[in-house]
Amino acid sequence: MYVSMAVENYEVIFDSVGDNATLRQRTLPLSVGGVGVDSIIYDSISLAEFNVPLKVFDTVSQFRIMRTDTTLLSDTLSVYHDNNMEFLSLECGCITYHTLRRVETTTNIIDSIIILNEDVRTSIESTGTNIRIYFHSDD
Amino acid sequence: MTEPPRIYVVLIVLALTVVMPVFAKEREKTPFLSPLFRGVSVHFDLASPIMGLTAGKNVYNYEAMVEVSLYDRFFPCVEVGYANVSHTIDEKSYKAQSPFFRLGMNLNLLKTVKDGKAQNIRNYAYIGVRYAFAPMTYSIGNVVVKDDYWGGETVIDYPAELVYAGWTEIVGGVRIDFIAGFTMGWSVRIKTLMHTSATSKDLFWYVPGFGKNGTTSFSFNYTIGYTFRTPETKRLMNIDKAK
To answer: Which of residues 53-92 of A touch B (CB under 8 A)?
Structure first.
């Protein structure tokens, strides 16, 4: 049972005039990993949504997100959060929950990012996706 | 002194033959016969030390109980005990020690009055309820917290904290008078943890008097002790014995 931040990928498509925008979930081949960590969480996998762990002993977690189907530069996603360590039981030990405070990103492949649900919990306890990434449209 | 007329004697006898069965029936309906106070029992539990050790090798649990017999039907009781727990799981340690107290009553399932006479209640089956309470001190140590992906590790100790835990019990058992007031009994208990001042019931690995974690616990008691009966109770029992 792990606590991880749930992320979903979206894009905004405008009509030819540019007046009307449509939201669409986007499946993209991505590589995702923590900044400063050698291990990659997702290595060139087609993803419409994904989960990443936040830091237990720090309040800023940064991730490098790269589209593997283009030569565009990767983006760095910065997540600012509070940590709340809770003792579960003698058998399970402690678990650390997070509360999202702010998110920032560079804008090479990502257009923008929003917090949907600030409470980061386990997949069993989760009440919904935590953040939504709007990627630049290919159109 | 003149003898009463024979007709009166006949009438009295006839009246008694009509009235007495009515009185007898009324007496049969009477659920309790005096005296109210029948005696006091003191028991020590031999099973709880073993039950404690089945939960963990460093779980020591002792308990004793005192009960009062009312009409040999109701048995208000007080139970006291002490538990000392020191347990380790994956290098995480849990320590708790506390006295615990239970207050409740047993109900004898056998008839205490039959044909208007008190029954010789030496052995009986019973059911009962308890409310129990433990003002416990517990501590948790050496809890390792790791960040498997980003790295980093720390060890947390939760220092000793005084909290209370309260629970209810449903008891069923038998009590046997095996010789001259020396009594023994078996009972099983289902316990439900009701409330605690701790932030979560999950913090407890073992609650003194309640048992191992969770919200429901089960235990078995084998008690041995002595029942002090009042002279009047002994007389009642002897009357029935003679019968």
So the answer is: 53, 55-58, 61, 85, 87-91
